[in-house]
Amino acid sequence: MARPELLTGVERANAKGDYNNKVVIGTGTAVLQYQVNNEGFNDVPNTSVSASTGVDIALPSCRIKAVLTGDAQVWLVKSK
């Protein structure tokens, strides 16, 4: 099972499915990015935030990474 916390700039393989993206921020920003077929990374819609939040997202089979500033932390957990 993949580690649920995403570290800034660290890519990982991600299976297709529905996920909950939890973000905790005191100061800073967070955005998730995904890549399909080595075509470059794009922002995952609705994941660019500057305050703590949680959002449900659907992802294709892809590579994923977080771009974090400040003290932002991101967890990506497969929905049940």
Structural account:
The protein has strands spanning 5-6, 12-14, 17-24, 30-35, 42-43, 53-59, 62-68, 73-78. The protein is globular and about 35 Å long. It is an all-beta fold. The protein has one domain.
Short description:
With 80 residues, the protein is mainly beta. The protein contains no helices and eight strands.
Features:
0% helix, 51% strand
How much is the radius of gyration in Å? 12 Å
The beta-strand count equals 8
Specify the structural class.
mainly beta
Read across the widest sheet, the strand sequence of neighbours is 1-8-3-6
Give the distance, in angstroms, between the N- and C-terminal Cα atoms.
14 Å
Q: Kindly state the mean pLDDT as a whole number? A: 91
Give me the secondary-structure topology.
Blueprint: E1 5-6, E2 12-14, E3 17-24, E4 30-35, E5 42-43, E6 53-59, E7 62-68, E8 73-78
Antiparallel strand pairs: 1-8, 2-7, 3-6, 3-8, 4-5, 4-7
